[in-house]
């Protein structure tokens, strides 16, 4: 059977950027003889409009069956008034939770043509290509006890950083597996100097390494020092693995090393399925961008690069993933720009669809 993909384009610019990915999926079928079984369904506000829920049980079941889910974005001002239980982002949270997507891959990749966009000096970021692996389903955002309590005559807000050994081990494995596909190098970040969970994190990552991945080069760094190093000389890293809280901060920071939100892909991976590949959901980092929705202004590259990650991690088509990434690199080098990629000097931006067509043309030439 062909590899299967469930497309959940969602709201706002989600369907606009996903339309360009669908063109590329079509291109793989006709030009490379690589066919995918694609089904499409609703998530977020559009699912609420149709079914009164941001994700139906039937869609959830489909997501559990396919080889990969591609998601656009969810949400919009129209849905802000809804009850929390049916808000668009609940659809996404349900997918992450029920698919048990504990490993969040956030690449920070700087295309040379966009190096001027970084907030850092060009030579610090040009050619940068690192991945932050963030634990996504445990840690201080979920640990109990949590809440606002009364203690004596004042209130106290409590969250608990809690990690089990198996939670640490599985995200460590995910980072080591990734490293083996890349440059065989992992840096693990925690605060073992001041946190018990950090001490355990460091021990377990080291143990998993020594037992199962001795071939991978492993280093440890305190997360605050890691933040400094990421700013100072990010190219010293390749794969960084860290917990939910530190990963949230470090991945947002690393993202800005490289420029526009419209460029950033992500993958969220879970346990291996029967075919050995992890459960997986791929999505751009950006949201539904209601301020530009429906105007053909959205940059589809984040969504296109998310599909490239799917080719690599869910379908073992690393060469084809590189082909897509090179095509993106070529159109950027040729000066093709959506509005978000234009500097203050301006110029004539292309539309979402023109950007997609330029990527297809570059693929044709590859
Ligand atoms: P946003 O990421 O949608 O937009 C932030 C800014 O970046 C806007 O000015 C937007 O125009 C621009 N932008 C984002 N993606 C772009 C692209 N591909 N091309 C060009 N410009 C782009 O974040 P915001 O405005 O905070 O949230 C808008 C809605 O999206 C909200 O309803 C929010 O809940 C939702 N959201 C959904 C996410 C998801 O589906 N994973 C993630 C973040 C926000
Ligand atoms: Mg964040």
TrEMBL record:
Its EC number is 1.1.1.85. Keywords: Amino-acid biosynthesis, Branched-chain amino acid biosynthesis, Cytoplasm, Leucine biosynthesis, Magnesium, Manganese, Metal-binding, NAD, Oxidoreductase. This is 3-isopropylmalate dehydrogenase. Substrate binds at residues 96, 106, 134, 224. Gene3D superfamilies: Isopropylmalate Dehydrogenase (3.40.718.10). PANTHER family: 3-ISOPROPYLMALATE DEHYDROGENASE. Residues 4-359 form the Isopropylmalate dehydrogenase-like domain. It is found in: Cytoplasm.
């Amino acid at each position: 059977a062909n590899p299967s993909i469930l497309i959940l384009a969602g709201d706002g610019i989600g369907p606009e950027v996903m339309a360009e990915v669908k063109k590329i999926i079509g291109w793989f079928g006709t030009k490379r003889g690589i066919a995918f079984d694609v089904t499409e369904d609703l998530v977020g506000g559009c699912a609420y409009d149709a079914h009164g829920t941001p994700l139906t049980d039937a869609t959830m079941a489909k997501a559990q069956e396919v080889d990969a889910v591609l998601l656009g974005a969810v949400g919009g001002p129209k849905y802000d008034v809804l009850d929390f239980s049916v808000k668009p982002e609940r659809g996404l949270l349900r997918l992450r939770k029920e698919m048990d997507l504990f490993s969040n891959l956030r690449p920070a990749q700087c295309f040379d043509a966009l190096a001027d966009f970084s907030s850092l000096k060009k030579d610090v970021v040009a050619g940068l290509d690192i991945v932050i692996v963030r634990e996504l389903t445990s840690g201080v955002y979920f640990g109990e006890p949590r809440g606002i309590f009364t203690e004596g005559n004042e209130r106290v807000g409590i969250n608990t950083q809690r990690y089990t050994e198996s939670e640490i081990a599985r995200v460590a494995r995910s980072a080591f597996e990734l490293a083996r596909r890349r440059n065989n190098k992992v840096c693990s970040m925690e605060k073992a100097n001041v946190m018990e969970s950090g001490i355990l994190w460091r021990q377990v990552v080291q143990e998993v390494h020594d037992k199962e991945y001795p071939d991978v080069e492993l280093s440890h760094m305190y997360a605050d020092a890691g933040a400094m190093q990421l700013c100072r000389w990010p190219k010293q890293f390749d794969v960084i693995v860290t917990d939910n809280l530190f990963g949230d901060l470090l991945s947002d920071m690393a993202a800005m090393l490289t420029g526009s939100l419209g460029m950033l892909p992500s993958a969220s991976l879970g346990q291996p399925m029967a075919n050995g590949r992890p459960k997986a959901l791929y999505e751009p980092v950006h949201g539904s961008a209601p301020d530009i929705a429906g105007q053909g202004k959205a940059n589809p590259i984040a969504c296109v690069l998310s599909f490239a990650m799917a080719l690599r991690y869910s379908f073992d088509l690393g060469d084809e993933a590189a082909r897509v990434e090179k095509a993106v690199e070529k159109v950027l080098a040729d000066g093709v720009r959506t509005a978000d990629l234009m500097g203050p000097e301006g110029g004539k931006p292309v539309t979402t669809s023109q950007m997609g067509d330029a990527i297809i043309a570059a693929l044709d030439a590859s």
